[in-house]
Amino acid sequence: MNKRGQELTTSTIILIILGVVILTVLIVGFTMGWGNLKERISTGKNNVNIISQACATACITRSTYDFCNKKRELRSDEETIKNVTCYWLAENKPQYGIEKCPEISC
């Protein structure tokens, strides 16, 4: 009974694969940014709620750059708008629920 090479059990193989997947997600998250990763993983094509929340957060925290300058891509069921800011969306596309921010002057 020579046991020089042991077999890998199924659970060991599953744990190795799971570890590689988690490591990949961590690497992508830290290199691309967690916000971008969240948008890419989201199942739907529509990201209006995510953009609306991000703009509201920028207003509440008085982050002038995030509200006035950070370029975003809004995807709704009707259209896709690229390279727009929260300020532009609040002024020109109020139907998406992005509110104007009186605390920030762009």
From the spread of the alpha carbons, the general shape counts as elongated
* Largest pleated sheet: 2 strands, antiparallel
Chain oligomer state: single chain
Supply the number of helical segments.
5
Order of helices and strands: HHHHEEH
Topology record:
Layout: H1 10-32, H2 34-41, H3 48-60, H4 64-68, E1 72-75, E2 80-84, H5 86-92
Antiparallel strand pairs: 1-2
Helix pairs in contact: 1-2
Could you explain the architecture of this structure?
The chain has helices at 10-32, 34-41, 48-60, 64-68, 86-92, and strands spanning 72-75, 80-84. The protein is mainly alpha-helical. The protein folds into 2 domains: 9-41; 44-106, no CATH class. A two-stranded antiparallel sheet has the order 1-2. The mean pLDDT is 84.
Overview features:
106 residues, mainly alpha, 2 domains, two-stranded antiparallel ribbon, 2 strands
